[in-house]
Design a protein that fits this description.
Two copies of one chain form a homodimer. Chain A has 375 residues and is an alpha/beta fold. Chain A contains eleven helices and twelve strands.
């Protein structure tokens, strides 16, 4: 059993943000697994998705019920092999799992920020990670790898710190959030706003907007699955009875499943963080910085990339990965690209461990070998 | 200017329902346009979608701002030509636009039904329409035509009253609601339930759950569009300013649009009706009546069909129409099928008037000619 422990890193100076403000006394929660090699060429940064955290693999204690969120991919002998690599995963800025976020205390007022927290961007998240990298004495990541919003962070790393990584692996991601996704985010946040407990973000810890947050999560969860996976998993099966109830209680298995997902989510996630992280994704648009020219936006990139998409992902479909690949190729970057056939929809990046793992394992090994030989 | 007027028909007897209960004193709001021919072979029933009503075309007064919901398709000289055909459109049972629904007064208590209203099915809606047909002295519809939930009604007509229609035109529809759609419906109803004004359906007319209903509508509205149409219509355009607000107000045009759609909807639609009609769609599953065998379910059908889908409709995609076509063909029914290329998503059945209209016009004319010749 791999036992890990959470660590904290306090940024030495205020963190400047894309919005023009800065954040003081920023804490970054992170975990590491494995050992940094003497030549420091085996460090991997794993970047997490919307609701993820620093706990990427292993358990905190032997009796933990569940391991970290990507435990099937990361660990001793696994695709991201912690016997070989030094793996770092940090909780993003704005989240609620240890790093500074909207529910943290504002050092200027002594109260939680709530909606006084500055709106952050994906680039701000990466800026904080860069400080963590310096703190850990890592000169260059062997790779930065992540799915969904984690993939967005990988892209930001490649653009903003091109000399600081030897490769990057954006998985099931996009270079800009689509209007459809912005729309889903909007409705999710509206559902939270309509919760009487919301109080414009100033809710107390014992009266959180859990119904609104559950609704937002249920809605988002539909977009993580595919019509195919829902049909295969639930179809129109009824949950408890042989026939319709002819009322508005849970009849269908898919309704029970969603309700369960919503309930579980509010136990571990914060409504204000949901606001800030979805907004960061709404604002994510790499090409906008270069007048809409994505190839131009990728001009600084030096590292080779492995881009991966999943065939039934309709949130960040393969066409979005292709745009990234084409823009990188225009810059003569080294790019490998694979669309993995999967019926799991967007969630496939967490589930298609065999196909994904094989590819990632080989890619990492090859990059590491190159570094070993060429430095 | 075509001027129409709403009419009411009171069912002569209680209406038995699929749930086992019956409804007393059922009113059906309907409108007719055109003249029933002496041989009564030119009557067309138009069946409406979730949020539709009996007001399919024309205006009530010269000064009305907007005509009926399918005015581009229906009227003098139009695809469904009211100079030639006698067009009937009735508001569905359970709705809030004139026909008996959950906000109607329960004759037994003198109070609004609210959630005491029985859960109805698409077949129940059609059962009420059958009484209207008798009342109007129509022996056989030239066609029953409708999009989305209107298409479900057309299918129910063809199965349950096979001798009462000479053709049917299910457009952008399905023979069973998918788990994904059930899931979206569930989240929409949850959003309404979370509105403090909801009061378990017993809201007063001056304190309706408008925010919850708006959220449900915004969510549903996303499913009516396509990623393509949203990208074309809005892209990531900002509504009012040149740069991000870095707060949670409406930044994007798509957010403003959705909010507008939500606001407009609550002005004309009732939350309880939203519950009942979405539930009727959840329960819609034709093949379930015959052990999952759709061809068997269609065995009673006699009338020829024109089945139409739209290429970018992901709510009721072409694959669902193909299932209907295949099942009808197995019964040796006459079926014409067309997938219209369109970027508009599910809403295309309201927007692709040229392509849809041409096909419907010819199909109706041919059916009418046949009736003229063969009686």
């Amino acid at each position: 059993m791999l036992i890990v422990k959470p660590q904290n890193f306090q940024l030495p100076a205020p963190l400047p943000l894309d919005c023009g403000r800065e954040l003081r006394q920023v804490n970054i929660r992170f975990e590491t697994v494995g050992t940094l090699s003497p030549s420091r060429n085996n460090a991997i940064l794993i970047t997490h998705a919307l609701s993820g955290d620093a706990h990427v693999c292993g358990k905190y204690t032997e009796t933990d019920r569940k391991p970290g969120w990507w435990d099937e991919m990361v660990g001793p002998g696994k695709a991201i092999d912690t016997d070989k690599y030094f793996v770092v995963c940090s909780n993003v800025l704005g989240s609620c799992a240890g790093s500074t976020g909207p529910r943290s205390f504002n050092p200027e007022t002594g109260n939680p920020y709530n909606l006084d927290f500055p709106v952050i961007t994906i680039r701000d998240m990466v800026r904080a990670q860069k400080h963590l990298m310096n703190h850990l004495g890592i000169r260059r990541w062997l790779t930065v790898i992540g799915g969904s919003m984690g993939g967005m962070q990988a892209l930001e790393w490649a653009i903003n710190y091109p000399d600081d990584l030897a490769s990057f692996v954006p998985i099931a991601t996009t270079s800009q959030l689509s209007p459809q996704s912005i729309a889903f985010d909007w409705v999710g946040r509206e559902a939270i706003k309509y919760d009487p407990n919301w109080q414009n973000g100033n809710y107390s810890a014992d009266r959180v907007p859990d119904r609104g947050l559950a609704a937002a999560r249920m809605l988002a969860h539909i977009t993580y699955l595919s019509d195919e996976s829902m049909s295969r998993k639930f179809g129109r099966e009824l949950q408890d009875s042989a026939s319709y109830s002819f009322d508005f209680s849970r009849d269908f298995a898919v309704e029970s499943y969603l309700e369960h997902q919503g309930r579980r989510f509010v136990e571990r996630f914060d409504a204000n963080s949901y606001f800030y992280i979805t907004r960061a994704m709404d604002y994510f648009d790499i090409a906008a910085r270069t007048g809409g020219d994505l190839a131009k936006a990728f001009a600084p990139v030096k590292a080779p990339a492995l881009v991966i998409s999943f065939s039934s992902d309709w949130l960040f479909p393969t066409s979005e990965s292709r745009k990234i690949v084409n823009a990188l190729l225009k810059n003569r970057c080294h790019v490998s690209f694979c669309e993995i056939q999967s019926g799991y929809g967007h969630d496939a990046f967490l589930l298609e461990v065999d196909a994904l793992g094989g590819m990632v394992r080989d890619f990492l090994h090859n990059r590491w070998k190159e570094l070993e030989q060429n430095g």
